[in-house]
Structure formats: C-alpha cells, structure tokens
Design brief:
Layout (H helix, E strand, L loop, with lengths): L4 H6 L7 E4 L3 E5 L7 E7 L14 H17 L6 E4 L3 H4 L8 E5 L9
Antiparallel strand pairs: 1-2, 2-3, 3-5, 4-5
This protein binds guanosine-5'-monophosphate and zinc ion.
Length: about 110
C-alpha cells in the first residue's frame, strides 16, 4: 500500500520511534500520546481494519496479542493497561491500517469516550 503511513513506518520507508519489531509486526510510540505509555502495534502486511481480517490472519492476530503482553511488561505496565482497536467510522479509526493501541501508566476511565 503505497500511501499507507503505517505500511511505511512498519517497513522502515519512514522511520519512527520503535518499541518492538519482528518479522510479522512493528510497534512504535504514538505521535500524539493519550497516556504516559502509548504504543501502536501493527502488522507489517497491510490490513485495513479489524473488519477486514480473515481466517488466514488468525495466527497473526494471536501473535499480536501475545506480543502486546510482552511489550506491556517491557514498558513497566505491571499495574495494568488498556488495548484499543478503533474500527471504522463509529469506532473512531483515523488510520486505515489495522493497529492496536497499548495505553498505560495512568488509570483508564469506563465507559470510554
Ligand atoms: P486511530 O484513530 O486510527 O485509532 O489511531 C491512529 C493513531 O495513529 C493516532 O493515535 C495518531 O496519533 C497516530 N498516528 C497518526 N500518524 C502517525 C505517525 O505518522 N506516526 C505515529 N507514531 N503515530 C501516528
Ligand atoms: Zn498499510
């Protein structure tokens, strides 16, 4: 995806501030953090949103969830954290490449905004 900002960051066409990386996923710090720790975790392959995932992405999605746990530990989030996947217009998604927000180091509110 030529014009996708997260494809570019995940594949180092544009450099970012990375928290974690492997052959399948990239994690980098959000440009406008909404908590003291705010990491975005994205697959290296382009998937538009959670709504566009398919059965063949099962292993990738499981991999992401397990790595989020490791990233949270590395970021010192032993008191807890929140993982958010904004999806589509009503979900408040602004970048159309699947990403998981990892937020921590402050108490979160419920219900979310
Ligand atoms: P969404 O609203 O789609 O769930 O989240 C997109 C997130 O990406 C926002 O929190 C926004 O601050 C972040 N973001 C947008 N462009 C960039 C960028 O170029 N670099 C980084 N590190 N974060 C970005
Ligand atoms: Zn993309």
């Amino acid at each position: 995806m030529e014009d996708c900002i997260f494809c570019k960051i995940a594949n180092h066409v544009i450099e970012s501030n990375y928290a974690y990386e492997d052959e399948l996923i990239s994690a980098f710090y959000d440009l406008e953090p909404q908590a003291p720790v705010h990491v975005l975790i994205v697959p290296k392959k382009h998937i538009g949103s959670l709504d566009e995932t398919q059965e063949e992405d099962s292993a990738l999605l499981a991999h992401i969830m397990l790595k989020i746990k490791e990233i949270a530990a590395k970021e010192g989030l032993e008191k807890g954290y929140r993982v958010v996947i904004n999806t589509g217009e009503d979900g408040g998604q602004s970048v159309h490449h699947l990403h998981f927000h990892l937020l921590g180091k402050r108490a979160m509110n419920w219900p979310p905004g």
